[in-house]
Amino acid sequence: MDEKTNAQPIDEKTSALTQNFSTGKLFRYVMPTILAVLLASLYSIVDGIFVSNFGGTTAFAAINQVSPIFMIIAAIGFMFGTGGSALVGKILGEGDEKRAKGLFSFFAYALIAIGVIASIILWFTIEPILKALGVTETMMPFCIAYSHIIIPAITLFMLQFFFQSFLATAKKPGLGLLFTVLAGITNVIGDAILVGVVAKGDPIKAVQGAAIATTCGLFIGGVVPLIYFAFKNKSLLRLGKPEMDGKALGKACGNGSSEFFTNISGSIINVVYNSLFLYMIGDVGVAAFGTVGYVNSIFTAIASGFVLGVTPLISYNYGAGNKENLKNLYTKSLTIVFLFSAVATVVIEALAHPLASAFSHGDEQLMQITIDGLSIFTLSFLFKGIPTFGSGLFTAFNNGRVSAIISIVRTLVFNLITIVAVPLLFFFIFGKSYEAAFYGVWYSVVFSELLATIMTFMFLRKYRSKYNYA
């Protein structure tokens, strides 16, 4: 693209996107988006706490087994949101507000259509999918009961992810936080009433209650922003006449493919881990990995929320040709990512015992397995932040290819390699035993993220002169 400096006059709506951020100011700017993504991720965690304590281990294991399927479908909304907002943000930086609004509308309408089609297909295929994944007969009724309530809400799930990205691009991250807080409150109240009171210890009613509570939260997270953008507002974007541009849609999907594949690969890996622990330990193993997965989702949500908050700033300044702001944003972002990764690792290691007890409902075996797994898994947090930021950075530059390579190799290739290689290495060093296999599986995540961090730094070094961020 042609280099531009101060290509467009800065008005009241865009001034926040072009300022020179200090580390503290940047963190404060992205904080609403971080909290919005974090609170959205807490839906499943709240469900898990209530179901594990009022429905039992099998019901808890069941929702952990089926949830990755919905995350794979909902990831389409994440792809449209991250990839689309990067493209729209760049166009806003170039000064073409009309085209930006038209493409935003087109992406939203296309996503709704895809969501409806996905719900119909999944409704008729969910049971065969669960059987193919090896869901046990004891867990199947719980999985089906949960699925039949969540499936019709898949479109809302997608829209929530979609609008989380675009509210930051529209310079309304605080509004995104408000919507998510309201959705989270709705979900918690729903769980307290439907799972804690109405279910009365019935496991099936517990999972159904959790699904209904989640759906009500998704309605606020997905439909309320849709209504906001449908009417005249003070943001940079508004839903209206779509600009039907298939090439732009393909570019947006290409930009966001990394986030899409990250969610898909992560869900696939979760299925693999669930199957391994189901084979090695049984339902209690799936439940233990579910707890560790919840803690991991908190870290991932914060890291992803930071990336979602900062990438519109990067996209806009890239479109406007502001090299100094790009360099500043890159340096400050790396500083925040390094600090967060280190602090998160220390904090979670210290809280392993109380976190495990929150989901163990008095089951000593479940609690001990969870503590052991969590103390090892948490070490991977030292390395998770950099690949997450690196992938988001290239999405912001509309380089979907590099972003996708980082995400796919990180979440799928490295994970599949290490989940085989590390246990074998532990067998060689410590001898063939259950303990070697158990610890080898947990440590495989740490080695996978270390490899991903090394790969990301290689890409950051290679492209720094092309995009002028360092």
Keywords for this structure?
mainly alpha, globular, single chain, 470 residues
Please give a structural write-up.
The structure is a single chain. Helices cover 84% and strands 0% of the residues. The chain has helices at 15-18, 23-54, 57-94, 97-132, 140-150, 154-169, 173-198, 203-230, 246-280, 283-319, 323-350, 352-360, 364-377, 381-396, 400-430, 434-467. The two termini are 18 Å apart.
Task: Please give the alpha-carbon distance between the first and last residues.
Answer: 18 Å
Low-confidence stretches: 1-13
Principal-axes shape call:
globular
Mean residue pLDDT:
82
Helical percent range? over 70%
Radius of gyration over alpha carbons? Answer: 22 Å
Count of helices? Answer: 16
Structural class: mainly alpha
In total, how many domains does the architecture comprise?
Answer: 1
Question: What is the strand tally?
Answer: 0
Main beta-sheet strand count, sense and barrel state: none
Q: How much of the polypeptide forms β-strand, as a percent range?
A: under 5%
Order of helices and strands: HHHHHHHHHHHHHHHH
